Every structure is written in C-alpha cells, then in structure tokens.
C-alpha cells in the first residue's frame, strides 16, 4: 500500500506508472498494490484511465486514513514546514501486520528500490 499526494502530478504519475509496470513481478512475489491519496474518486478514475493503471486507487479526502497510518502531517517542502501527504509505502501481511513502513520515499526510483530490497 502506498500513499501519494496528488493524482496526475509529475512525481505521483511516475510512481504510479512504475508500480503499474512492475505489477506482474510484484504479484508473482505475492504482493498486491493499492494507492491512496486525498483526491476525489472522479479524479482517481481519470488518473487510472489516463495512465492505464492496473491496481486499485482509493480516495481519502478527509485524510483520516492517511493520518492513521502516519502518512499525513508536517513535512518540509521547498524549505518550508507544511502540512501534507507524506509519500509512504507499507508492506502489510495477510493478517494486517505491517512488515515494512517507509516514510518520505522518493517518487522516482522508489519502486525499483523496493523491488531490490524485496528481491523481486
């Protein structure tokens, strides 16, 4: 499961397309992908369709899920402290236990690093 700031922005698009392009290998390793952002469902449908994304995108407009997972809060952006989505990735086992929690991940190269770390 990964949390991202906004659909159809350059970094989030790159990250989503990297997950899309790696999905078969991730699935073969027993991993499913779910993306969560504060975007409204209509924007997510457009993003999914435009980028041919092949995994679920969930909407969290009130940011309750983001906050519960520690993926929303204070972060530094362009040298300023702001409240926002903290780009994060979690590996959750079949019992709901968090196996890996990664915060402040980079949009570009993150999926490749994740695959290396997991030997996928």
UniProtKB/TrEMBL annotation:
Q: Which domain of life, per UniProt?
A: Bacteria
Q: What's a single GO MF annotation on this record?
A: peroxidase activity
What keywords sit in the KW lines? Answer: Antioxidant, Disulfide bond, Oxidoreductase, Peroxidase, Redox-active center
SUPFAM superfamilies xrefs:
Thioredoxin-like
Which Pfam families does the entry mention? Answer: AhpC-TSA (PF00578)
EC primary class? oxidoreductase
Name the CDD domains on file.
Answer: PRX_BCP
Could you tell me the EC number(s) of this protein? 1.11.1.24
Q: Does the keyword Membrane apply?
A: no
* Job description of the protein: Thiol-specific peroxidase that catalyzes the reduction of hydrogen peroxide and organic hydroperoxides to water and alcohols, respectively. Plays a role in cell protection against oxidative stress by detoxifying peroxides and as sensor of hydrogen peroxide-mediated signaling events.
What is the recorded name of this protein?
A: thioredoxin-dependent peroxiredoxin
């Amino acid at each position: 499961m990964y949390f991202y700031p906004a659909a159809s922005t350059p970094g989030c698009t790159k990250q989503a397309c990297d997950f899309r392009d790696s999905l078969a290998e991730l699935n073969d390793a027993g991993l499913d992908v779910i993306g969560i952002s504060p975007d409204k469902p209509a924007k997510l449908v457009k993003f999914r369709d435009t980028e041919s994304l092949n995994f679920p995108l969930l909407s969290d407009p009130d940011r309750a899920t983001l906050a519960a997972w520690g993926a929303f809060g204070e972060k530094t952006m362009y040298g300023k402290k702001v409240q926002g989505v903290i780009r994060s990735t979690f590996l959750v086992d079949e019992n709901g236990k968090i196996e890996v929690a990664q915060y402040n991940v980079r949009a570009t190269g993150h999926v490749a690093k994740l695959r290396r770390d997991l030997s996928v």
